[in-house]
Amino acid sequence: MREWTGQFWFLPAVMTITALFLAWAGIQVEERHGIPAGLDWVYSGGESGARSLLSAVASSAIGVAGTVFSITIAALSYAAGSMGPRLLDNFTRDRGNQAVLGTFIATFAFTLFSLRSVQGGDDRPFVPHYNVTLAMLLALACVAALVYFLAHVTRGINMTAVINLLRDDLRRALERATDDRTEAVHPAAPPEAFWTAGEQLRSPDSGYLQLLDTEALTAAATRDGVALLILVRPGEYVFPNTPVAVGVPRLPGGVLPALVLGPRRVAGQDLEFTVRQLAEVAARALSPGVNDPVTATDVIDRFGDALCRLQGRTWPSGVVYRDHQLRLVYPVTTYGGLLDSMFHMIRQYGSASPAVTLRLLDVLRIVAQGEQDATRHAELDRHATLIMEDARRETKNPGDLKDLEDRYRTLRQGIRRHGEAPGA
Predict the structure, then answer these.
(1) Helix, coil or strand: residue 380
(2) Running DSSP on this structure, what letter comes out for residue 243?
(3) CB contact burial 128-153 (16+ within 10 A = b; e otherwise)
(4) Exposure pattern of 225-264 as b/e (b: 16+ CB <10 Å)?
(5) What are the boundaries of each domain within the chain?
(6) String of b and e for 308-334 (b: at least 16 CB within 10 Å)?
(7) pLDDT at 272 (0 to 100)
(8) What global pTM score does this model have?
(9) pLDDT, mean of residues 291-316
(10) Mean pLDDT taken over the chain
(11) Which of 11, 75, 270, 340 could form a disulfide with 235 if both were Cys (CB 3.0 to 4.6 A apart)?
(12) Any transmembrane segments, and where (predicted)?
């Protein structure tokens, strides 16, 4: 349901239907009860004036909407070249943009419906005075919506605004994907040899794994008294006729319906997709055609923010027991995999930029200072080493290289002081 209500057309459609109902109700009320005395603010003109006013409002509303949104889409398409496709997706799902479009379309539909009820002549003349009055108010609402829309879109295509939106998405995704460490339970997974004699399930179709229904899979395995291993993770592309699951001693029923495939990656269970959207912004900023290291460092700061929020939280093990019996094992994103998604692309594209490399090392140092987990320190140390290896090869200026070596040395010393990472 949320996927439907978030579509660009949903709110405008609801507003248009509401406008049509109001137009019909206004006509019915006036035909039955007329205009009470004392309502001086209600339109009091004749048939000719009503036709002209309603026609002007209808043509203006749809004309302005078409022109403004056409120009806006062109500007957004140009801006998406440097910010990524997330900008367009955010524009279509933004409730403010939907409300503006709905205001214009609802005004157009309301005035057209009202216009058809205007009748002249001597037989049965009728002018919908309530509706003409409301049409004038809707015209003023369209003007206000236009002013709001221009200011809103201008803020929306700002690079910092886009990065902050992606940061908020990443925060929510990490909160869904991790647990509070004091409450987390990590049952052990069986060795790989346990699954060698199992029955394989191959995918009959292809696409990105958008949803893995672990509750349904656990219920199916419990019902049939088997253990089930899922081989693919949300966000991975599933090729046809490739193994996606293994059941021991046999496969339970209902596995394929719990693996939802689609033509594109989506947020939700696919944590790395949210991370890669931010990393893509940094990679585009570091391309030779854009050359914007400031944006890349902004993205690195947001990644540091996310990693600091992970301190004290832990990843699910992906192992599910029911009544002390193994029922399901499924792949999950690890801390190391998260770091790979965050920093590999930025490191590769930004290795020749000392400003980017320095900020990468600074952020890793700050994250390491607050992190207490030994395995996470080892992953941070691994990425710091990769960054310095590329920097030594690409950095030409001796002064820049000295700064990088100093930052790297400080980072390694901080990790070693915790006694949780291998020495240099």
Answers:
(1) helix
(2) E
(3) bbbbbbbbeebbebbeebbeebeebb
(4) ebbbbbbbbbbeebeeeeebbbbbeebbeebbebbbbeee
(5) 2-157
(6) eebeeebbbebbbeeeeebbbbbebbe
(7) 86
(8) 0.77
(9) 91
(10) 88
(11) 270
(12) 7-27, 53-78, 99-118, 130-151
